[in-house]
Write a sequence for this structure.
C-alpha cells in the first residue's frame, strides 16, 4: 500500500484515495485552490507525506483529513478509505450541511417553455388583472 520512499505527488494521491475520478480533475482542483495542504495552496507536483493535513472543497462539502498512508494505485473504496482519517468536526459539519440542503425547497422545478395555461396567466399578470 505504501510507497517505499514515503512521499508522492498530491494529485496522484487524491486520485488513488478516490476523491477525484481522474488525475486531471485532481490537478484542476489543486490549481483552483480547492485543496490546501497544512493551510496553504500548493501545486499538483507537491510531495505529500504521511501526517500531512489536507482541506478539500468538493462542491459544498469540506473535508478536513489527515494522510495516514500513501498509495499510487487506485483500489476499491474500502482500501481508499484507509489512506486517510477525516476529523470528527468535519464529519459533523458535512452532516449539518447535507441536512440543510435536504430542507431547502427544490428550485429546479421550472419548465423551459410556458404552457398555454401558463402563458395566459402571465398575460393576466402583465395586464394587472
Amino acid at each position: 500500500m505504501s510507497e517505499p520512499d514515503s512521499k508522492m505527488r498530491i494529485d496522484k494521491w487524491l486520485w488513488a484515495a478516490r476523491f477525484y475520478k481522474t488525475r486531471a480533475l485532481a490537478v484542476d482542483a489543486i490549481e483552483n485552490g480547492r485543496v490546501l495542504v497544512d493551510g496553504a495552496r500548493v501545486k499538483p507536483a507537491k510531495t505529500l507525506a504521511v501526517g500531512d493535513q489536507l482541506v478539500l472543497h468538493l462542491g459544498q462539502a469540506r473535508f478536513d483529513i489527515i494522510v495516514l498512508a500513501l498509495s499510487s494505485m487506485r483500489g476499491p473504496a474500502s482500501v481508499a478509505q484507509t489512506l486517510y482519517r477525516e476529523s470528527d468536526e468535519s464529519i459533523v459539519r458535512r452532516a449539518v450541511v447535507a441536512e440543510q440542503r435536504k430542507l431547502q425547497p427544490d428550485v429546479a422545478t421550472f419548465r423551459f417553455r410556458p404552457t398555454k395555461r401558463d402563458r395566459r396567466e402571465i398575460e393576466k399578470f402583465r395586464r394587472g388583472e
Notes: The CA atoms of residues 76 and 102 lie 29 Å apart. The longest strand covers residues 61-67. The two ends are 71 Å apart (CA to CA). The mean pLDDT is 89.
